[in-house]
Here is the input.
Amino acid sequence: MKIKSDNPEGAYGTSLTDLGETVFRKGGALVLFPSFYWQLDSIYYEQTQNRLEAMLQDSVLYKDFGLDSGIYFYSEKFIPDETQ
Here is the structure.
């Protein structure tokens, strides 16, 4: 079931009605693939970079794969401890 975000221009994880954002806020990872930027671009055109930056605002980058792709967490407290 897809629920329309109550904050479509805000940071990912700030919507109180979107299940995916709730999971992210509670510790789930957001994984962006290189193709994600171009999927956004087909919707937002010249606003794509601004939308992407707004979406990722305050998110913590865990792994950077370049080309606007990577693994993000809502908070540093959710980043896995790689020493275990």
In short: The helical segments are 19-25, 34-44, 48-56.
